[in-house]
Automatic annotation (TrEMBL), chain A:
UniProt-recorded name of the protein: ABC-2 family transporter
Membrane spanning stretches: 72-92, 120-140, 181-200, 212-232, 244-267
Keyword Transmembrane found: yes
Keywords: Membrane, Transmembrane, Transmembrane helix
UniProt keyword Membrane, yes or no: yes
Domain of life of the organism encoding this protein: Bacteria
Automatic annotation (TrEMBL), chain B:
Protein name: Uncharacterized protein
Native source organism of the sequence: Cohnella xylanilytica
Amino acid sequence: MNRYLKLVHMEIHRFRYFLLGLMALTLVGQILTVAIATSNEAAKFRDPARFSIDSADKLSFEWIVRISQGMFALPILISMAALLFYVFLIWYRDWLGRSTFMYRLLALPTARRNLYLSKLTAIVLFVFVLLSFQLILLAFEQLIFHWIVPADIRGESVFTDVILSNWLFEVLLPLSGSQFVSLYGFGIMAVTVLFTAILLERSYRIWGIGYAAAYVAACGFAVYATPFALGVNQLGSYFYQWEIFAIEAAVCFLVTAVSVALGFRLLNKRISV
Amino acid sequence: MRRTRYALSVGLCLFVLVTLGYYYAYASDERLPSLKLETIEGDAKEGAALSLIGSYHQSMQSRMLTVTTDGSEYAQRDTLVDLLPWERPWTPDSPDLKAIRKEHPNFMRGKGEPRGWYRDEEMLVYAAADNGGSDGRIRLKVEVLNESSGKTKRYSVAVEDSQSYTYPYTADVQRVGGQLHVLVFMQHTEVADRVRDAIGLNEVWDYVLDLEDGSLISRNNLTEGLKAESGVDAELRIAPIAEGSLAAPSEYALIEVTDIKVKQLAHNTQEINNLGTRLYSYSYRTGERKLLVPFKTSARGTGFMCKLYGNQVSVQQDGETPGTFAWTLFDVATGEKKADLTVTAEQLGGTDIGTVFIAHGRVYTLVHDTDSPLGGGGSMAAVLDAATGQVLYRGKAVIADPTRDGDKEWSRLELFSLSLRDES
């Protein structure tokens, strides 16, 4: 356990500046958006002749977030793309370069599965760190909004309404805890499938690319096709809706378990120093 | 240095735990107001059957809610389960079928016809009609579950000389002694230019099966001989009406026959005028079709609703003047008119009639008071005796939490419909 935690710390340490950069990008992008949009909307309130879209009496933070969908979403989407890229880079950076760092990792006196698990943990942690940062940032942005807008034209916003006013927040920060677990459980499954595909490529080289592509396709097909195979879109299907969901969840769990087990096996048996 | 070596990792983990933990433990709670249906007048037991439906508008979001005497419940936001496409939307709404699904979930599997159910103390029956076979004949698929022994019998009956019909669906299933009656609504087809198309009159057939061996005993065409009575240009529109409780036994069905005039307009649209409606009763026991007293639709419009519950036929429509509604009751066995009543919204404490429906000998209505400053708080739910028009219950939704700003909350609430509460 100790060695696993140390490996997790190593992965976090290696990525810290990049993570900080993504947080800074989100901070700057969204604060600028809030400042500019709030100033513009506040000016409209002072000039009723220009004001035509919203008939509300007061200007709310929720409205600012609603009308700035794209600018709020842009830094988040860039962060998501960066993390997706890092899912591959977290492995390949260890193989690239003159002194292959992966050989040193494989030679460590620790179970090789810890390498897999530490990288998986690190990716998941980075995602949750960015989500948590977004929540804190929203509260800070609301403060900025309060500073800019005078009290006589400022309306109150409930925090949950602010979340629901942006389509990306509603998806990434669902109000329901069970929805959060389902969504990010699905994301963890996807990461394990990609990790195993990477290890297949690293294990079998040229042929490995084909194996990796076939593995990803097979997992994707199993997850996508299961509900339709169970008749989810047919009148009078044999299974009930909750049963289809439970079976689909079991399939996702199975795909995750197989991916992790296969990844362990490849690290133990195929990849060598 | 050693102490701070892992500070970043530990700090990030704690940051995630605290922030997401706080969000899901507290910040993600929308803290919506809770409401309750309270009795203003009458028997509280009548109000216990009601469920008011509305929405709460918070800033730019709205949430659907239901209000009963037990409290209020807000609709959950779409979960991943809700996003799965689902082709049986009727199952959550019918108390009959909900009860069957609870007690016999395996028997209900794979069965998609909402009106294909019959249930009494002895047996549970499902029947469905289709013509998906290669021979094009109408096929009746029946499953009978013996409630005491738990055994299931299955029959599949092909109806001879039925190749000229299509789009069959089961309108009702009833049992009379040892016979099963399957009421099927379908359309004639004709072949033109080697293309088979449904262009004929809709027909309603009663297929009678022997419950012992599933053999077809007889069949009756309930729509035989029916003709438009409002002139040469008039066409017939036929609709079967079965017992309102989907799986409940009934000796009768209704046939609603409407004369319509179709006028073709530009852009491939049509204008359809209702020229008059007749209601026929059909007895499963005797096979007799009888004309009930024809009724006139309201001068304000042609909207009306016919329902059958037990032996009682109700025809409900808007009243002659705004803010009123009227209904007529018939005994389906004798055709005798039992009641012909009108009620005003004012009598019930409102100005406008919202939802009205008749079921189980009661008239359920939601009236609105457009003069009320409370918005949704000006709505009144009422239950009347369908036979006499006597008000049995009146109730209003109230905000259960006294600390809430009532005026502010009511300005965000809208109660727009009424239904019967799930009895299962």
